[in-house]
Design a protein that fits this description.
The protein is α/β, with parallel strands linked by helices and about 240 residues long. It has two domains: about 160 residues, Rossmann fold; about 55 residues, no CATH class. Helices cover about 30% and strands about 20% of the residues. It contains nine helices and six strands. Strands 2-1-3-4-6-5 form a six-stranded mixed β-sheet. The longest helix is centred in the last third of the chain and has 16 residues.
Length: about 240
């Protein structure tokens, strides 16, 4: 299946996902920044993909860390459950933990972040991404959205320091993403012919938005108060 009308993240072809799903593309683009946060002396980097379900991001990191890739682990939990009893994962072992689009599905995100810390090596980092301007997507439940201030408070309460916290996308990307969802969902509607008549005149505008929103100089000046989401790199507090 190329597209699930209830969940665009189930687009199976990476090329199509990069084009159609701005949330996905904005997450993948953050991976290239990761090596700068690790000491050059590390011979290998063990990575835990924590809670991303069937859409593991580990294969996207091979070209980022290359020969430094160590042990990779993908743990596929049931969302919105207590993660604190994972016995098969070694403690203080992983240099990088991915928590990608997970926290919004947790009933107690602070508790989950506190649980994750025990699997993190002393010099380790956690990459967290969360949506902001995104449709409700139960997996099986969808509880939360955060602003930068909300994330800062959440990380501090969970005992982390923030190495990086930035927006993903801009207002133009958000509009473009919503237009694409509107178009694709209409494909499955019994009124598809009518939907097509409404959407076809908008496609040139969508292509213009899709192209322009990714241009660096456009991204620099377009407002970011309604972003796709946020990305953060966090680590243990120095006194922890």
């Amino acid at each position: 299946m190329l597209y699930d009308k209830n969940n665009l993240s189930k687009v199976n072809l990476p090329l199509f996902r990069n084009i159609l799903d701005f949330q996905y593309a904005s997450i993948i683009s953050r991976f290239s920044k990761l090596p700068t946060f690790f000491a050059c002396g590390l011979e290998s980097i063990n990575i835990l993909d924590y809670g991303s379900g069937k859409n593991s991001y580990l294969n996207k990191l091979q070209h980022v860390f290359k020969e430094k890739l160590g042990i990779l682990k993908h743990w596929d939990p049931h969302f919105a459950r207590d993660f604190s009893d994972i016995r098969e994962i070694p403690q203080a072992f992983y240099h990088l933990i991915l928590v990608i689009e997970v926290l919004e599905h947790c009933q107690d995100p602070q508790k989950e972040l506190e649980s994750i810390k025990k699997y993190l090596s002393p010099e380790g980092k956690v990459l967290v991404t969360v949506p902001f301007s995104a449709r409700v997507h139960p997996c099986p439940q969808d509880f939360s959205r955060w602003t930068k201030d909300g994330l800062t408070l959440l990380f501090e309460k969970a005992g982390y320091q923030i190495d990086l916290l930035e927006t993903r996308g801009n207002n133009l990307m958000t509009i473009t993403n919503k237009l694409m969802h509107f178009f694709l969902k209409g494909i499955f509607s019994p009124f598809f012919p009518l939907h097509l008549l409404l959407v076809l005149p908008q496609l040139p505008l969508w292509f213009l938005f899709a192209h322009c929103s990714r241009l660096p100089f456009i991204n620099k000046y377009v407002a970011k108060d309604d972003p796709l989401g946020f990305a953060a790199i966090i680590s243990r507090k120095a006194d922890d």
